[in-house]
Design goal:
Elements lengths: L3 H9 L1 E2 L8 H7 L8 E10 L6 E2 L6 H18 L16 E5 L15 E5 L4 E5 L2 H14 L1 E2 L4 E10 L5 E7 L7 H13 L4 E8 L2 E2 L20 H13 L3 E8 L4 H6 L28 H15 L6 E5 L6 H4 L2 H9 L5 H18 L3 E5 L12 E4 L3 H9 L3 E4 L11 H5 L12 H5 L1 E8 L9 H5 L2 H10 L7 H18 L5 H11 L5 H7 L2 E3 L2 H7 L11 H4 L5 H15 L3 H19 L1 H9 L6 H26 L5 H15 L5 E3 L2 H11 L9
Parallel strand pairs: 3-4, 4-6, 9-10, 9-17, 10-12, 12-13, 13-14, 14-15, 15-16, 16-17
Antiparallel strand pairs: 1-2, 2-8, 5-6, 5-8, 7-8, 10-11, 18-19
């Protein structure tokens, strides 16, 4: 007779039909995990989930771990429709999922926290082992990503996973100075960060346009918030929320430059007399702290003392970038100070400021982080350098003994594709650093600067592309297959919306608003082939201010237009295998695609008659129709086995160049692959990517 325990396990688990064991590389090809673990083996079989699924935590357990298990169960129930017990067992024999944790980990999570775990799914149960609670949090996210359904049930494959991050610092900067982001926006993005194993929220809390934290010691800093800032209680809530998810919160308070918001309330500490008002534009402004006066350092010391008690993380970001030297060199008192101290230039004066600032931070048990400009031989080697200038600057710091993180190439507002972001590696193959210098490269951070995002649009600017960055920072260097990354990114994107971010639902809501209707199929279709213009183009074409409503079509569409990638993939197939049967099928698919794109223009023209905000979309649709017609012509040449005349090729390439020009804040994503098709019609073999 079966015992109650064995009966429970029998009801909780079923084994799917067996399949051949898969190696690490082939396992990665069938799973939709992101980030891909360090080591994966897929074995024969599948564990099916049932309402009798139960979690056991037999060894170390604390409130943080139990809350994480509870969240995981709620998430699984929402995905599978199963009614799952939230009664966490202590006896491992009672658990379908056993979470075996050895210890709590660090009281205040640091860059050295152990995030490793193993995950074994076998015929009877799932066993997640981790040395710390944070490691268990990472393993729980992997387990949830393993769950998939078929026609009968939900289950997880039999796997053995041994996982740990490649880099210790995997961050996301969120700028709340240029546009304030409420607590709920920060928290839903923390949920998404946890899902893809990011571990640092870099909270950019002050800049020229806003100072976003309540200070009781210096209440006039509130004058620099324009009425939108976080209370101390809200800051504590966000930090606790992040810690529950294994994420550190590193504050950034910009100084000596990017500091106008400080001076609105406290102009006496600036290098030039006030009064100061918050700028609404994003033009570079010459304003900075006065590094020559003792009162400035007394003020900063008081502020750091207050905020250090609020932000427990060891690191404190000072900014330190883009100081306009003229604000110092135009001040006679500052020039006299520089001559007296034999300072050759403003760079030496900033190094003096940074040295004193680093001592203030050290006195409050904080380590200083700054952008590239803080790098100076006289700074202590405890300073961490965040590089926006690139590998050369990052490597220079490492060679001089400074730890560093990379953000160059990871600016999300630049509108790079997920593929471009995916290939930005803090330690690319072939780097010339020695082992000690390599150890100083801690990782990287994606940067979501705030000029062009609001609470309505920020999620779709961060996600899902940041999941690709998260994989680069977690997974082994050799995980670089872009096509497979996009395959898995599509699945993870849906999961990210499920955990709370609105990168999929948000754009649809904005389309409905500016169209004045819920019949937005033409706009959804257009969004598949257009992308936002680059950051540089945006600032040249329609430079925004802090009060510009960010609801134009170019503010809604996202990089990585899916149909642009689909067109490229179809052309790859066509040029690689132009044989009769396969080639004809691909050509038929392309013909249908071009016809569908041409149909968008008349539909949008009708919508624009009562929705003037759609004018950019209407213009882009007209350009799309013209480009699609070129594609159809090129396709007809290939279908008939004819070669287009040189004059035709030259003319059609010129038409595509015209179609590539921005339409308001939109650009067609399909022009580069269409150029390949035109060149192929003209007999140019290079069009096939050879």
């Amino acid at each position: 007779m079966r015992s109650p325990v064995s009966l429970s396990l029998a009801l909780a688990v079923a084994v799917a039909p067996l399949a051949a064991q898969a190696s690490d590389s082939s396992a990665r090809a069938v799973l939709t995990l992101m980030p891909m673990p360090a080591s994966v083996r897929v074995d024969a079989g599948r564990l099916l989930l049932s309402p009798f699924f139960r979690v056991a935590v037999p060894r170390y357990r604390d409130a943080r771990l139990l809350r994480a298990v509870d969240r995981a169960l709620s998430h699984l129930a929402g995905r599978t429709g199963l009614v799952l017990s939230h009664d966490i067992a202590r006896d491992s024999l009672l658990g379908t999922l056993v979470v075996d944790v050895r210890a709590a980990g660090q009281t205040v999570q640091s860059v050295d926290e152990n995030e490793s775990y193993t995950l074994d799914v076998t015929g009877g149960r799932v066993v997640l082992r981790a040395p710390t609670v944070v490691g268990a949090l990472r393993g729980l996210e992997t387990f949830q990503q393993l769950v998939s359904g078929d026609s009968d049930a939900f289950g997880v494959p039999f796997v053995h996973i041994a996982d740990q991050p490649r880099f210790r610092w995997r961050g996301l900067l969120i700028d709340v100075s240029r546009h304030f982001e409420p607590v709920e926006v920060i928290e839903r993005n923390l949920d998404a960060m946890a899902a893809v194993k990011l571990n640092v929220l870099h909270w950019h809390l002050s800049d020229d346009q806003g100072f976003r934290v309540e200070s009781r010691r210096f209440p006039k800093l509130g004058r620099g918030s324009d009425g939108e800032s976080y209370t101390r209680g809200q800051v504590k809530e966000v930090i606790a929320y992040a810690r529950d998810r294994g994420i550190r919160v590193v504050p950034e308070f910009d100084m000596p430059g990017h500091a106008i918001s400080w001076f609105v309330g406290y102009p006496a500490y600036a290098s030039a007399p006030g009064p100061y008002t918050l700028p609404t534009d994003y033009h570079f402004t010459a304003a900075a702290f006065d590094p020559t006066r003792a009162s400035v350092y007394h003020f900063i010391d008081g502020f750091v003392a207050e905020m250090s008690a609020l932000f427990p993380d060891r690191y404190w970001h000072v900014g330190g970038d883009e100081v306009d030297a003229r604000i110092w060199t135009s001040n006679p008192a500052i020039r006299r100070f520089m001559r007296h101290h034999k300072m050759a230039d403003a760079g030496a004066l900033q190094a003096y400021f940074d040295q004193r600032l680093s001592r203030i931070l050290a006195a409050h048990h904080k380590r200083m982080i700054g952008w590239d400009e803080v790098l100076h031989p006289d700074l202590p080697r405890s300073v961490l350098v965040q590089s926006w200038r690139g590998y050369e600057s990052l490597g220079e710091g490492a060679r001089e003994g400074y730890s560093g993180i990379l953000s160059a190439g990871l600016y999300l507002d630049a509108m790079s594709s997920a593929a471009q972001l995916y290939m930005v590696d803090p330690l690319p193959a072939g780097n010339d650093l020695d082992s000690a210098q390599v150890a100083r490269i801690l990782g990287g951070e994606a940067c979501m600067w705030g000029e062009l995002v609001t609470p309505e649009t920020i999620d779709s600017r961060i996600w899902p592309r940041t999941a690709a960055i998260a994989e680069r920072l977690w997974s082994p260097r050799e995980v670089v297959d872009i096509d497979d990354m996009y395959r898995r990114l599509a699945a993870v994107s849906v999961e990210l919306e499920d955990v709370g971010v609105q990168h999929l639902s948000g754009p649809a809501a904005l389309w409905r608003r500016i169209a004045g209707t819920d019949q937005i199929a033409p706009l959804r279709a257009l969004a598949g082939v257009v992308e936002p213009v680059s950051l540089g183009q945006r600032m040249r074409l329609r430079r925004p201010t802090t009060v510009t409503p960010l609801i134009a079509p170019g503010d809604i569409v996202t990089p990585d237009a899916r149909d642009g990638r689909a067109l490229s993939a179809l052309l790859d197939t066509l040029f690689r295998d132009p044989g009769a049967a396969r080639g004809a099928a691909v050509r038929d698919t392309l013909a249908a695609m071009f016809a569908r794109w041409r149909s968008i223009a008349p539909a949008l023209a009708a919508m624009t008659t009562h929705a003037p905000l759609l004018i950019d979309a209407d213009s882009a649709a007209v350009a799309l129709a013209a480009a699609s017609a070129v594609g159809e012509e090129a396709l007809s040449y290939l279908s008939d086995g004819r070669t287009a005349a040189p004059a035709w090729t030259t003319d059609r390439l010129a038409q595509l160049d015209s179609a590539a020009a921005p339409r308001g804040l939109l650009r067609l994503a399909i022009v580069p692959p269409l150029r390949r098709l035109v060149l192929a019609a003209g007999g140019t073999a290079a069009a096939s990517g050879q």
